[in-house]
Each structure stands twice: as structure tokens, then as C-alpha cells.
Amino acid sequence: MTAPERLNGGQALIKSLEMENVEVVFGYPGGAILPVYDPIIDAKLRHVLVRHEQGAGHMAEGYAHATGKPGVCMVTSGPAATNVVTPLADAMLDSVPMVCITGQVALAAIGTDAFQECDTTGITRSITKHNFLVTRAEDIPRVIRTAFHIATTGRPGPVLVDIPKDIVDANNPAAYFDWYWPEIEDLELPGYQPNVDPDPTAIADAVELMLAAERPVLYVGGGVLKARGAEVLLELAELTNIPVVTTLMARGAFPDSHELCLGMPGMHGNYTAITAIQQSDLLIAMGSRFDDRVTGKVGAFAPGAKVIHVDIDPAEQGKVRMPDVPIVGDCRLAMELMVEELKAKGAPESLADSSAWRQQVSGWQEKYPLTYEQSAPGELLKPQYVLERLRDLSPEDTIVASGVGQHQMWASQYWTFDHPYTWINSGGLGTMGFSIPAAIGAKAGMMDRTVWSVDGDGNFQMTAQELVTAAVEKIPIKVALMNNAYLGMVRQWQSLFYEERLSEVYLSHDMPDYVKWAEAMGCVAFRVEDPDEVDAVIQKANEINDRPVVIEFRCHSEENVYPMVPAGGSNDAVIVDPTQQPTLDAERAAKEASQ
After folding, report:
1. What are the residue ranges of helices labelled H in 109-186?
2. Taking 90 as the threshold, does the pLDDT of residue 188 lie above it?
3. What is the number of domains present in the chain?
4. Which residue of 63, 86, 150, 415 has the fewest C-beta atoms within 10 A of its own C-beta?
5. Which of 544, 478, 550, 556 is nearest to 516 (CA)?
């Protein structure tokens, strides 16, 4: 019988990651995690050296979004651990599978205010799905196995593993143990039992409501993508002829070019998606959590609709809106069962007549499409136009990673997402600076795909240093920098709701010089100010694949995102583009007069 391999904690940690088929680790070394960075030299996995620990976390998120595999980041203790708090909170809100490994001071020093000590597990308890403080080297394989299992099953999310320096130190005899690798069924997880299989009775009840509905809407959230359910969603929609809205986190889950796709609902969704939900008689919520940005004023949200709510997390049932049919389970499995039950009940022939509803929806699409006014000659660029040209000149399966703000909303509105897992953004937390590191993570996982980071000037200045990482590590992302010289969304709110009293939102078109900055970080850089130059520069950027590319698009400062639902207001009060608002106001006045 072969003697078991004897490893120290640091070696065991790296081997555990290899056993989990980890391909890339995004990280930054430091004192407490240093013993792990020695065996990483001989590891099969790739390590990407970031320029800030926050970047490591967002890269892990971007990798997870694009590939569906858990992203992994590794940093040291103290300030490094606190720097990954934002990505952990971001991943928690957006259900991103991620494992974060942090170094910790030696066991004997914990609680003594040692150099670079902080209570990492305490700080991150509320923003992780679970976290661990490992106290014995021999526990490392079991904990890593458990961390990946928790991060990727049920509702996905981030898991943190905090590891004291002495249990991974090759010079510490107590750090050595006989290697083993546990089976999933041998893990002790008494309180963790995700309910994956939907209740057949609830499915049958849901189908009865679907058969009877005359104004149904499929309200699709990011949970459908997490469940890898895009294909069966298409089958369900086509079988029932029910129109589909895709939330900010679900863009691409249903093809935008499909005739049943209504696009994005919510605060900056399009008029048709918002109004269809409001006037529906049945909302089929798939992996969506009734976020406040979608519902607006909760009491006024879809007032006449019955609700079927499918979600793998039982805590979401009734949290915001009480469902008529709650279904706890995997979205993909639920939709598969719905398709079977519908066919058994004679669908599509047995469905209620919804032709008038589809005609109504089509009328809204024709009357209130997304629109903007193109720049006059000599004026700066309209960001909507830039995004349309980026969309049309890039490969169909291009991955788009967005920052947060106006450019995020325009990207979601104007890009055509016909493929799942091609839209990456910070939805729940709204993290500025997310785009560039997330794009790097996505590209690291999908090197054969074109990856565009759509960023704003405010966002860019938060995490642009990661372009050094992209250049050095040869991860050639492309960045479309929408420079409007303002914190655009804040300026829009101050203009609309604070009597145009603009406070601390001006940045400048010229400071810094983004082209020189990008070039200093190893990128090819361009500046575009004229609409006639847009196409040629985008085409040139798409042809460069040996280094990162940054295009600074100088954009209109005063452009606003429409439609818009005022914060806390009813979706019925949606504001459309100023060119369309008089028509909408007249319709509303006529409706009130007739009541």
C-alpha cells in the first residue's frame, strides 16, 4: 500500500484548488498569505497578479459570470481582506459563485491586534453565503471542498476562507499532514440542504394559472442564467406565446431579437416592459427577486396580477410580493416541468386567447420605442449612438462588462443580447469601478471571445490601474470610455429632482488625459469626438488583439437616460423621452377623464 503524500498547509491549499479544477486565481501576495505563494510557483493553475485587491474580487466575479464556474481570488490579511469586502458584497447581492481566500495572522496572534490583523470572518459574515476560519492544517482540503460546494449549489454566492499564516508555513512542523481529498457526501453540512426539485403540485397549480391568463408576462431574473436555463426558457415562451421581460441581471437569458422579448423593465427599462408588467393579469417570476429598481412603489406594482414565483432561495418567497403560487427549486427544472405539464394539458391549443394582449403590447412598442436625438455637426457624441455602433461592429457573441451609472443603462438598453452570459454588470450593489476588472476576469476565462468594457469616466478613475494587469498578463480587453465629464447619473438626478442644483458632480473632459494614461499602462488608446470617426476607430480596436485597447468617446454632458421611473414612485408614472412625453401625458389625461 502506497504511503499517503505528506504536505504542508500551503501545498495542500494549492492542491485543493487544483482538485477543484480551478484554472485561474486572481490575487495579490502579502505577509500572512506569503507561505501559499511559494507552492503556487509549481502549480498547474494560472495566477493573475492584480494591482489592487478589489480588482482581484471583481475579476473573480467577471470570470464566474462569463464561464459559469466559480471565480477564485486570494489576498493577504488586514487591509487586503477589507479591500475585497466590496466584491464580496457585490457577489452576494448578484448571486455570483466565488471563493475568496484570505491570509490571517498566526493562530497565537489572533485577538492581539497584531500587524495587519482584522476580524475577517466577522466583517464578512453578512456579505458571504458562508465563511470559515481554518485552525488546523489538516482541515484545509475539507474546508476548500466545502467552500466550493456551498458557493456553487443552491443559490450561488461568495464563500470566504480565512487561513492563519502558521498552518500554511512550510517551516512549521505542525503544518504538515497526510493528504486526503473528501467526497461531497462525506462533508458535514447539517444545516445546508438546498431544495432543488420543485413541488409537482405547485407546478400543476402554476400551469392552471398560465392556461387561464389573458395578459401574462414572464418576468425573468438572473436566477435563470445561474440555473443555465436559457434554452428551456425559450421553449416555454414559444410554447405559451407569453411575452418576456429580462431584468438587468438577466439580459441575454432570452434573445432580444425574438418577437416575444420586451426587453428590460424597471427604473430605466423601456416603456413596453414596464407597462406590460403593470397591466398584466399574471406575472411568472423566474429567478427574480422583485428588486425595488423593478417594482418601484411596491404597493402599486402590477396591482391586477396574480404571481407565480419560482426561486431556489425560499427566503425570497413573500419577501417583497406575496405569490399566489410559490415554487421553491431550480428555475431550469421548474420550467422543464412546466413545459411537460402544459403539453399534457393540451398547450398551446388549451391556452386562453391572449391575442388582444399581444396586439396591445405591440402597439406600445411602436408608439414608445427607445429613442434619442443624434448630435448636430460639431457637437460631442451621443452615448446611445456610440453603443449602437459598438454593438453593430462587434462580433455577435461579444461579452459586455459594464460599470455603473448612465452608461450601464444605455448599454443594457441599446445592445442586442441574443446570447446568454454575454452581459456582466453590478446589479444589486451598483459598484462603480466594476467594469474593467470584471472584463479582465471574463476575458481570462474566455480568451477566444471579444470582451468590451463599457465604462464611464467616474468609474474608470476608480479601477483603471487594472489595465496594467491586463497589459502585463496579456489579457487584451477593449474599453469604451464614455467621457461626459460628469458623474452622469448623479447629475441627472440633481437636474430632475434638485432644481438643477449641481453639487460635486463635475469631473472634466480634459483632466486626466485618458489617452496618455491608457498608453502609460500599456494600452493602445484613441480619442473620438466626431460621429464620423466612430466606426473607423471601433473597427481598428476590434482588430487589435495583442494588448488592451481604450477608446475615449467624448460624450454630451447633458444627456439623460430615458425612460425613467422616479425613485419610490409608481411604475405608472414612468417618464419617457421628452419627444414622447406630450403624447403619453395626453393619453393619461384622456384615461383619467374617462374614469
Report:
1. 120-124, 140-152
2. no
3. 3
4. 86
5. 550
